[in-house]
From TrEMBL, chain A:
<protein>
    <recommendedName>
        <fullName>AP complex subunit beta</fullName>
    </recommendedName>
</protein>
<keyword id="KW-0472">Membrane</keyword>
<feature type="domain" description="Clathrin/coatomer adaptor adaptin-like N-terminal">
    <location>
        <begin position="44"/>
        <end position="552"/>
    </location>
</feature>
<dbReference type="GO" id="GO:0016192">
    <property type="term" value="P:vesicle-mediated transport"/>
</dbReference>
<dbReference type="GO" id="GO:0012505">
    <property type="term" value="C:endomembrane system"/>
</dbReference>
<dbReference type="GO" id="GO:0006886">
    <property type="term" value="P:intracellular protein transport"/>
</dbReference>
<dbReference type="InterPro" id="IPR026739">
    <property type="entry name" value="AP_beta"/>
</dbReference>
<dbReference type="InterPro" id="IPR011989">
    <property type="entry name" value="ARM-like"/>
</dbReference>
<keyword id="KW-0813">Transport</keyword>
UniProtKB/TrEMBL annotation, chain B:
<dbReference type="InterPro" id="IPR050431">
    <property type="entry name" value="Adaptor_comp_med_subunit"/>
</dbReference>
<dbReference type="InterPro" id="IPR043512">
    <property type="entry name" value="Mu2_C"/>
</dbReference>
<keyword id="KW-0168">Coated pit</keyword>
<dbReference type="InterPro" id="IPR043532">
    <property type="entry name" value="AP2_Mu_N"/>
</dbReference>
<keyword id="KW-0653">Protein transport</keyword>
<comment type="similarity">
    <text>Belongs to the adaptor complexes medium subunit family.</text>
</comment>
<keyword id="KW-0254">Endocytosis</keyword>
<dbReference type="Pfam" id="PF00928">
    <property type="entry name" value="Adap_comp_sub"/>
</dbReference>
<dbReference type="InterPro" id="IPR028565">
    <property type="entry name" value="MHD"/>
</dbReference>
Length: 724, 440
């Protein structure tokens, strides 16, 4: 019951902080600190002021990863017993940091900690328990188990919630030890605690354990889900997040139940904490998979939109996260963001990562109706300072021409305006996208070739060069001096990248086919270079292919090289259906920032899948629909090679590689979708042999909590807790 | 969840390092320093290397970094980092390098309390200040005190402690709106919206239950969004025209402090709560319809050959003549190769700031319904740069009292308490410029 005198005591000033870090030789410093720490202050130092200052210096040095401090370990352990909580806290911090380096010295601190576990002050008990369980030393871990069992039932909720997290910590240290004890069962019992913070902590601990163990399964039935939803309002913002995260382990068996639960959590969307909001959105999206009524689903969707947009008024990092998730949600539930695209227009001062993501979103939300506004906006971005952003903007304009056919003309005129600015990287980027526009709308906008040709000199990037060369080759008969232009590029053949060389090779052949007189000097030269003077296998192979084609049957060569090209679309950026489905189960997590399948970013993360149940609306899942389409596609693609042969390779064209790539990619995709769908039918829920099933079952309290090993008890509703 | 927390200064010196899990290694601090702090090309607040992710924010002159393994809840990580900053501010006044250095033991103590195994715990300032204080640690407390603290830290009302007493019961309500505007070069409004916040400072005795009344007609969301909500607010028949009628306001979305009973808000739009002691943010909202723009700006810019740019900028105040805006600052961008400028203003002062490439026009007091004009010329120096001037938008800052752009009004604030005391309430409105940009 003493309070430290305030006036006499101050934290070291910044000057002091610095001076102690760069003082003297290591040994000298350690000796000095030890002297300070162990000095007997006598009567003057009633409140151990000198010791505290010494400890602070030690902690400061510890932060700088100054490992000389380990030498002070025995002295620290001695100081630990002093009757001052402040000293104790600093000693504990030291202990947590260095226990692994000197386990034998750390052991001397164990009795002190164990004694503190029985302190009358709940804050002290919790502090000791928290510290004890941070230490990755066998004796510490083993000594924790027995007192922990008592502390899980402590009469103070603060101690209980600390104890709940301790179970997860012990599991991290030694999973065999925990699985062999009844700690997880006891943790499960805590889900019935009267204190909401304890319940949410226990859930968080269980989820943490679940995340790291293949052998554990978390099952929550409707009654339990309903109960934890009920305590949501009484939990802290973090507790609410933990509970919402746990709700994705609830598999609705009935479509009504799913709808009811989704409706009940909608209130959370008004919370200020974006973790609560985004996790709530995750749960709602998840539950929608189990809701039959389209009306209910669309009603829920309308509720997701305003909170998602509101997150854009938070800090830039949260904005970024919200925008990335908007990109994801938009693909799964387009009705969610039927908002005005203008909401996503960039502010001049937005950080670049926000701007780029807004740009992607603007592209996705662009329609025939708002295209004018969108183009004016993108045109504005194209004159900004950041190079990467400008390029992306130009590229977006080009892609819009492909995505929205009626607006193609408008997009192209915007691009031409940009080309007229003569800014080198804008021109280059525009050239690349215009090539794609030619692919999409062959023989329609040739008038712009002239403008492009005026800017040949500013092209110095391989991609832009290759694009321009492709245009020259493709339209060789319509560009008067095409052979001259091509010659100019060929002059630097040796210095070009393979990408440009490939384009030059193809363009030369196209020129020859369309205007044999002009191309006859060029082609042999280029073929020779490509086949004899290169070490690139692609280039050589393509060279030989053209060579033989031209020498064996020039007539057919034309129909092959200048054949009709398959149409291109702007849809390539979309996630594949299986990934999309998986990503929607992890809304708000890091993986959504990368928009890549979770296991490609975080290999060891436990995969999440939609669990099968009678309520699952399987026919509405993207993966199912894709699988159906793939079936149609695969039956039609069987005949594709034959028809190809018959029609003299209609599909073959100048961009053989592109096309082959696209073809194989489509095969790959569809077979992937099929296999995944097959997996689905096989229902991953059915417990595989040997899988241990943990079951969360807050509630009915029949006290049957089992130490029995049950592989599966999914259906008996009255077993409580999680069985092991 | 979080494996550790790192704090760096701008130079990349480690100020604080706390590990919460086995996978947090000291060398990760070096990794962050090399990969993020000393890497100018880094553009994202999130960096994943292997399975380790660094999520960072910046506050004043420090980096605050959350280190995690696996696919953690990123929203939770950032919200926590923001929270750490606001906790630091409330403890030390500000949260910068100096504050951290002079309070580093306390920062460690706070971290130990608000994170357990990397999971955020109670982060309510009021509760934490009961047992972690700057005046030395009030450690050896009476047992009943400790129990009170633990109940508070885990209880449903973690944001308010018992036994608060004031001689004079007062509540201050500040409605603060940031109005965002983006006008295109042709003068069309591309976006105009309001981010509003209701800040409260409550100095009330006991456990008061407060009820808050906003405009008579408060509509939430767009048409149809509130169909299922029904209730007395269901002003469904009111189409856009009547929404503009006096006394009504349409809020796109609101988010409420955790003390507000969300269920009663969903049911009948009453905002009812037991407030934390002292100042807090009760609610934030967003409005996009019928935004009253305080200033109308007309910009005429002529580039005369390559040597000169002429500006004529007229700003008109759209609010009532009795109101006046203060600290009005208009920033007029000039080309990067500007050599000198000349300017004339009908009010305030204008000055060329070469470091920012802008002419700064300051007007200390801008009375309603008045109009002021700036005419300026910028002489350009010779340049080798080919690229045309990118013409960044003109931007404005101002603050305007007793005016809300959204039209939001506080009708009443009632305080119910067992003691039945009378309380004094004050309401203040302020509209500020959020991002108020005019392209030209």
């Amino acid at each position: 019951m003493m309070f430290l005198p305030v006036a006499a005591y101050h934290y070291p000033s910044p000057f002091a902080y610095k001076s102690l870090l760069y003082a003297r030789s290591p040994q000298g410093k350690v000796a000095e600190l030890r002297a300070e720490l162990t000095a007997q202050g006598g009567k003057k130092d009633k409140n151990y002021l000198n010791k505290k200052i010494a400890l602070k210096k030690i902690v400061a040095n510890m932060t700088m990863s100054n490992n000389d401090m380990v030498a002070l370990f025995p002295d620290i352990v001695d100081a630990m017993g002093l009757p001052s909580l402040e000293i104790k806290k600093m000693c504990f911090l030291f202990l947590v940091n260095y226990a692994r380096a000197k386990p034998e010295v750390a052991l001397r601190a164990l009795p002190i900690l164990l004694k503190d576990l029985e302190d009358t002050n709940p804050l002290m008990r919790a502090l000791a328990l928290r510290t004890l369980s941070y230490i990755h030393v066998r004796n510490f871990v083993e000594s924790t188990v027995v007192p922990l069992k008592a502390l899980l039932k402590d009469n103070d909720p603060y101690v209980r919630k600390t104890a709940a997290f301790t179970v997860a910590k012990l599991y991290d240290h030694d999973r065999v030890l925990v699985e062999g004890s009844d700690l997880i069962d006891r943790l499960n019992l805590m889900l019935r605690d009267e204190n909401p913070t304890v319940v949410s902590s226990a859930l968080a601990a269980l989820m943490d354990i679940w995340e790291r163990s293949e052998s554990i399964k978390l099952t929550i039935d409707y009654t339990n889900a309903s109960k934890i939803v009920q305590i949501l309002p009484d939990c802290s913002e973090w507790g609410q997040t933990y509970i919402l995260e746990a709700l994705t382990s609830y598999v609705p068996q009935d479509t009504q139940e799913a709808a009811l639960l989704a409706e009940r959590i909608t209130q959370r969307l008004s919370h200020t904490n974006s973790a609560v909001v985004l996790t709530c959105i995750r749960v709602m999206l998840y539950l929608m998979n189990y809701i039959e009524s389209d009306k209910v689903v669309s009603n829920l969707c309308t509720k997701l939109s305003p909170p998602l947009v509101t997150l854009l008024s938070k800090g830039p990092e949260i904005q970024y996260l919200a925008l990335r998730n908007a990109l994801l949600i938009l693909q799964r539930r387009p009705e969610v963001l039927r908002n005005d695209v203008r909401l996503f227009f960039c502010k001049y001062n937005d950080p670049i990562y926000v701007k780029v993501t807004k740009l992607e979103l603007i592209f996705m939300l662009a329609t025939e109706k708002n295209i004018k506004e969108v183009l004016t906006e993108l045109r504005e971005y194209a004159t900004e300072i950041d190079l990467h952003f400008v390029r992306k903007s130009v590229r977006a304009i080009g892609k819009l021409a492909i995505k929205i056919e009626p607006a193609a003309k408008l997009c192209i005129s915007t691009l031409l305006e940009l080309v007229a600015t003569k800014v080198s990287y804008v021109v280059q980027e525009a050239t690349v996208v215009i090539k794609n526009i030619f692919r999409k709308y062959p023989n329609q906008y040739e008038s712009i070739i002239k403008t492009l040709c005026e800017n040949l000199d500013s092209l110095d990037e391989p991609e832009a060069k290759a694009a321009m060369i492709w245009v020259i080759g493709q339209y060789a008969d319509r560009i008067d001096n095409s052979e001259v232009l091509l010659e100019d590029f060929l002059d630097s053949w040796q210095d070009e990248t393979h990408e440009v060389q490939l384009a030059l090779l193809t363009a030369s052949v196209k020129l020859f086919i369309q205007r044999p007189t002009k191309g006859q000097e060029i082609v042999p030269k280029v073929l020779k270079w490509a086949t004899e003077e290169t070490d690139n296998p692609d280039l050589r192979d393509r060279g030989y292919m053209y060579w033989r084609l031209l020498s064996s049957n020039p007539g057919q060569a034309k129909s092959i090289v200048m054949g009709e090209k398959p149409p291109i679309t702007a849809e390539s950026e979309k996630l594949d259906p299986v990934t999309l489905e998986e990503m929607c189960l992890v809304v708000g997590t890091l993986a959504t920032v990368y928009l890549k399948p979770v296991h490609t970013v975080f290999r060891s993360t436990r995969p999440r899948r939609l669990q099968d149940s009678p309520a699952l609306q399987r026919s509405k899942l993207p993966s199912y629909q894709a699988a159906q389409q793939a079936k149609l596609l695969s039956s039609s693609s069987l005949s594709l090679p034959q028809s190809n042969g018959g029609a003299n390779g209609q599909a073959q064209n100048g961009d053989v590689l592109d096309e082959a790539d696209a073809y194989f990619a489509s095969i790959g995709n569809s077979s992937m979708a099929v296999s995944a769908a097959g997996d689905f039918a096989g229902s991953p829920t059915a417990g595989r042999g040997g899988e241990q099933v943990y079951r969360v079952n807050q509630g009915q309290g029949l006290g049957q909590m089992g130490t029995t090993q049950n592989a599966m008890n999914r259906d008996d509703g009255e077993g409580d807790l999680l069985s092991f | 969840m979080l494996s550790g927390i790192l704090l760096f200064n701008q130079k990349g010196e480690l100020l604080i390092m706390r590990a919460f899990r086995q996978d947090m290694r000291p060398r990760l601090a070096d990794v962050f320093r090399i990969q993020v702090i000393s890497n100018p090309s880094i553009r994202s607040p999130i960096l994943t290397l292997g399975s380790t992710t660094f999520s960072h924010i910046r506050s004043e002159n420090i980096y605050i970094v959350g280190v995690s393994k696996g696919n953690v809840n990123a929203a939770l990580v950032f919200e926590f980092l923001y929270k750490l900053v606001s906790l630091g501010k409330s403890y030390f006044g500000r949260f910068d390098e100096e504050a951290v250095k002079s309070n580093f033991v306390m920062v460690y103590e706070l971290l130990d309390e608000i994170l357990d195994f990397g999971y955020p715990q109670n982060t309510e300032t009021d509760t934490l200040k009961m047992y972690i204080t700057t005046e030395g640690v009030k450690s050896e407390r009476a047992l009943e005190d400790s129990s009170k603290i633990t109940m508070q830290a885990t209880g449903a009302l973690s944001w308010r402690r018992d036994n608060i007493k004031y001689r004079k019961n007062e509540a201050f309500v500040d409605v603060i709106e940031d109005v965002n505007l983006l006008v295109s070069a042709s003068g069309t409004v591309l976006r105009a919206d309001v981010n509003g916040a209701i800040e409260m400072r409550a100095y009330l005795t006991g456990m008061p239950e407060c009820k808050f009344g906003l405009n008579d007609r408060l509509t939430l969301g767009e048409n149809g969004a509130d169909v299922s909500l029904g209730g007395p607010v269901g002003n469904k028949s009111g189409q856009k025209a009547s929404k503009a009628a006096a006394g009504s306001v349409t809020l796109e979305d609101v988010s409420l402090h955790q003390c507000v009973k969300l269920s009663s808000f969903t049911n009948d739009r009453t905002i009812s709560f037991v407030p934390p002691d002292g100042s807090f943010q009760l609610m934030t909202y967003r409005a996009t319809e019928n935004v009253n723009l305080p200033f109308k700006v007309q910009v005429i810019v002529n580039e005369i050959r390559k040597s000169k740019v002429e500006y004529s900028i007229a700003i008109r105040a759209n609010y009532g003549p009795k109101l006046f805006a203060t600290s009005v600052v208009v920033k007029v961008p000039t080309p990067t190769n500007t050599a000198s400028t000349t300017h004339r203003v009908t009010q305030g002062k204008a000055k060329y700031e070469p470091s920012e490439n802008v002419i700064v026009w300051k007007i200390a007091r801008f009375t309603g319904q008045s109009e002021f004009v700036l005419s300026a010329e910028a002489e350009l120096g010779a340049t080798t740069q080919q690229k045309a001037w990118s013409r960044p938008p003109l931007s404005m800052q101002f603050s305007l009292l007793m005016f809300t752009s959204s039209g939001l009004l506080v009708r009443y604030l009632k305080v119910f308490e067992k003691g039945n005391y009378s309380s004094v309430k004050w309401v203040r409105y302020m509209t500020r410029a959020g991002s108020y940009e005019i392209r030209f």
